[in-house]
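Batch job 17 of 40 flagged for manual review because the log was empty.
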Amino acid sequence: MKFCAVICEYNPFHNGHAYQLAEIKRQSGCDAVLCLMSGNFTQRGEPAVLGKYARARHAVENGADIVLELPAAFAVAPAEIFAQGAVHILASIGAVTTLAFGCESGTKEDFLRAARATLGEDRRFRAALKEAMKDGTSYVKARTQVILALNSDIDEALLTAPNNMLGTEYCRAILASGANIAPLPIRRVGGGHADSALHRDFSSAAALRSVLGERSLRAAFAKRRNLPADVCASLADYKPTAYPTAALCALVAADEADLALTPDCSEGLENRLKALSRSNLDYEALLGKVVSKRYTRARIKRILLQNFLGIRLKNVRNYLDAPLYLRTLAVKKRRAEELLSALSGGFPILARKSDGALLKKDALSCFSLDVRANELYGALTGVHSGDFETVFV
């Protein structure tokens, strides 16, 4: 069996995702689609709108064959670690021959060319990067500027458009790890990654999340037109969580040394955040005080979430090099035997929480973080997953 993998969040699963899965089946020539999906917290630094089992079920009901969980340590990390961690998991599965990802533009060869350029960060590159950051430009933007300045044959859109940037990171991780996985860019349709406008059929997840709590006819129409019926039904009783308050409480409880150890924290940000934690600001007001040209909103939100979950950069780096595990969330029932058999031979397969007893050292530490993330999500939402058993759809 040959898997085409897709790394995803499905927050929530919408028409654009269903379109992508259909295109993967049409273009990849693989036997099955494997989704590696973030769990209960996302790379934007916030809880998912639905629990991971509900989102995994939606994926299988709408075109996927099997859904695995991307460990929380990688799921809430910056793009480079997010991509490295995901490819680390996928490379352990010999049956994964292709990695599909959404993109705004570009071919397979374009993405590989851009990825190779990002690997060549020599002394000249580092000097130019340091110079580019002097005016307060963020590391990501400065790095992009330097890569483009030193590589005139690279299309700027591959390093600046949101989906393209992540696709380039996936290709970079594939090349750096030597994984035998071919990239498959799938052109995105409808609303862009961060497009806040509602479209008739293909709105972005960001736009749809913005109207989940609304009871207006406009919101109801948007959800009915853009979400599969099963997803729409699952979101009928959606309510925001108390996560912002919980994140602030965790910030108050932490000290500067704790904050400095999170994956996204550097350059003394821990001192700024800790000082603001004493100012009785609400979550949005605190973000407004820290977000700047150099420090993006997503990065600050990730620092707060990484602190809330207790994630440390040193541990995450260890996980990137360690044999980990394959955590199954949902499987197509009629193909379960062959799908699960195709996963065997690499990292151990965990079908329920108790299977964590099979793990040792870094793998156990990584899985324990997943368990903690599940429990915290349950406390925030009231959605408790029991023994975290795989769903057969």
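Reviewer: the log was empty due to a logging misconfiguration, but the result itself is present. The chain has three domains: 3-105+164-192+315-392, 120-155, 243-314. Unflagging and moving on to job 18.
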